[in-house]
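Human:
Class, as today's exercise, you are to examine the entry below, and be ready to discuss the fold:
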Amino acid sequence: MNFELALIIVGLLIGIVTIISGIVSIILAINYVRFNKIENSAGLTGTQVARIILDQNGLEDIKVRETGSILFGNSYSHYFKKVRLRRLTRHKHSLTSLGMGAQKASLAILDSEGDSDMRKRVRLYPLITFGPFAFLPLTIIGALLDYFIFKTSGICTLILFGVGLLFYLYALILSILTLKTEKKAQSRAYEILQASNLATEEELEKLQTLFKLYNIQYVNDIILSSLELLYRILEIVVKVKNTTDN
């Protein structure tokens, strides 16, 4: 098998998926902003709808706070007992605000109910967020150990390279877990909004469109992570093969 060719092909696939992911992100952003200009029929802000849903489910201890963070965005934190809503949506009486407030509050409900997927997500959250970033530092550390300490021909680099790949693999598995919990929270939010008459059928259909775009983006990210993992593995194979040939 020509591993060099496979490496090139996977690299091209990464480029294609990255472009597709970029297009989906643009479509998602357009719809996010478009629905953020439509006033919801309940006349509630994102903060208000999240607060109502949390209180109805006995979660008065969960705070609703504003975030301008790119990393967190609209999110729920188990550790800080907090629903975070973007500045763009928190105080607006928009359809986007209604959907985001309800969905993130629903994540808190899943957490309080001890949902199995949510428990796993909470326990392994640090690996989901920071796992992939460990790859490059570990590889650099391995190279430095080889060059300055052990004077070996790439053994430490390869070992720490492999450890970095394990972080990638964990992040990939946990990305799938994150998608499962997000979809569960979307379904719960949809049920709550419908049962409480906080949204019309037309509004619910629009929110489903928004949620589907988020899910597509999650799937794209999972595919991209899978290809990156495969690319790193092929890099190791090619490196070992070249070392052996020499």
Summary: The first strand starts at residue 63 and ends at 67. Residues 3-245 form one domain.
